[in-house]
Design brief:
By secondary structure, the protein is mainly beta. It has helices at residues 8-23, 314-321, 381-390, 410-418; strands at residues 27-28, 34-37, 49-53, 59-64, 75-80, 83-86, 92-102, 108-115, 119-125, 128-131, 142-147, 153-159, 164-170, 173-176, 188-193, 199-204, 207-212, 215-218, 225-233, 239-249, 252-261, 264-267, 277-283, 290-296, 299-306, 310-313, 330-337, 343-349, 355-361, 404-405. It has a domain at 1-31 and 369-419.
């Protein structure tokens, strides 16, 4: 058998596997593929839609309403452990709140509400919604679109007398991210943050940007493109996804999803040649799963992209690969994906024809293939170790088919790597 060199981090991972196996503990596997509608808030007239999913895949935030009870026609919610609860609103304004992002464990959320001050970004934790203020100058206005995984940072846009600027709020202080740009500060919007909030992405001067510890970088757009923006960033801040708009000729435009990694921007392709446009909304921690929405002649479809499968409708994956029954469901948008790439939140139409947020666990095509690249190799070690040490993303860890991840799975996992 040929010897395969192992990088230092591989030896660390191997040591972690052996140390954990010696303890002899067992973790429940992530469970079989599954699909469910998330329901609506009591008294809803207009249904529900998803906005984001927590990194651990247990919580979803989005919007619903309580119009039939005389309540808000637009109300942010958090869904977790089967229960959808309204987040409330800021005091002093209309009964209204729009959801933004959610932290890694679902305990903190962000968005926008109306307050005494005006339109104001909020941070929600422990049932309490708090306004975060705005940047100085001009009319009072701020809007949050995400919260960092650790819950410490809120990002979005704020309006000044000059233009809209991307902001980050942390520890009670809101800063203009454009001030980290080498040149004239461009207006823009911040859409997503890394786990620690030290990397923020969004759109500025018509281009995707990545702000890293105080410095803003504008991405170079590919030939034929008009403008673009970033929608999401991986927890470590190293992978960015979003959408770029291209000139399609004759005054028409088309949109394409992209993935940016280590300075290289890659267009993700098309939906079997049948899409009019597509856009990426979220990315897994390792960049091997991207979700979003593609427009087809029959309407919007939620998509999932992997290196092995390219862009496919989420519905096709659930029905064709995992034999789930989605009779009557239309999956129009995929709005978020968990850090391990196995759980997706989105928006669609239920069998009754009503708009409803949904949650899908896509399971594991091949045990041991943690990064969904169609191979079982050294690239899967990190996912296996993460499962053993944290209990997250264990759907691909049940190597011996006993519905649990334990010491008995270590040997077949190693054997699969060497096969």
């Amino acid at each position: 058998m040929a010897f395969i060199p192992c990088a230092s981090r591989c030896w660390v991972a191997a040591a972690a596997i052996l140390a954990w196996a010696a303890v002899g503990a067992e973790l429940l596997a992530a469970g079989p593929p599954a699909f469910q509608g998330l329901g609506v808030l009591p008294g809803s007239r207009f249904g529900s839609f998803a906005r984001a999913i927590s990194d651990d895949g247990t919580a979803v935030t989005g919007n619903s309403d309580q119009a039939d009870l005389g309540g808000s026609t637009f109300m942010a919610y958090r869904w977790q452990a089967g229960a959808m609860i309204p987040l409330g609103d800021l005091p002093g304004g209309a009964n209204f709140a729009e959801s933004g992002g959610i932290s890694a464990d679902g305990s903190v959320a962000a968005g926008m509400s109306f307050s005494f001050n005006g339109t104001e970004a909020f941070r929600w934790e422990g049932g309490v919604m708090t306004g975060v203020g705005d940047l100085p100058g001009g009319v009072f206005y701020s809007h949050a679109f995400d919260v960092s995984g650790d819950g410490s940072s809120v990002v979005g846009l704020s309006r000044t007398e000059v233009t809209d600027y991307p902001f980050r709020w942390k520890d009670g202080v809101m800063i203009n991210l454009s001030e980290g740009f080498d040149g004239t500060p461009p207006g823009g919007i911040a859409t997503a943050a890394s786990h620690d909030g030290e990397v923020v992405v969004g759109q500025a001067a018509g281009r995707p940007f990545r702000w890293d510890h105080g410095m803003m970088e504008l991405f170079k757009l590919p030939p034929g493109s008009l403008f673009g923006g970033a929608a999401a960033v991986s927890p470590d801040g190293q992978i960015v996804v979003g959408t770029i708009t291209f000139d399609a000729g004759g005054g028409a435009t088309t949109k394409r999803a992209y993935l940016w990694r280590k300075g290289v921007l890659t267009i993700l392709g098309d939906l079997r040649g049948n899409a009019l446009a597509n856009g990426a909304e979220d990315v897994s921690a390792d960049g091997n799963v991207v979700v979003g929405t593609t427009n087809t002649p029959s309407g919007g479809q939620a998509f999932i992209w992997t290196p092995a499968g390219g862009i496919r409708p989420v519905r096709d994956v659930l029905v064709e690969d995992f034999n789930l029954d989605l009779t009557g469901w239309q999956l129009h948008e995929a709005n978020g994906v968990s850090a391990d790439g196995l759980t997706i939140a989105g928006t669609g139409r239920n069998p009754a024809g009503r708009r409803e947020a949904w949650l899908a666990h896509i399971g594991c095509v091949a045990p041991g293939d943690f990064n969904n690249d169609g191979r079982r190799d050294g690239g899967d070690v990190q996912g296996f170790v993460r499962c053993l040490l944290t209990g997250l993303g264990c759907g691909c860890g049940d190597m011996d088919g006993d519905d649990a991840v334990g010491p008995s799975d270590v040997e077949p996992f190693v054997a699969a790597l060497l096969d």
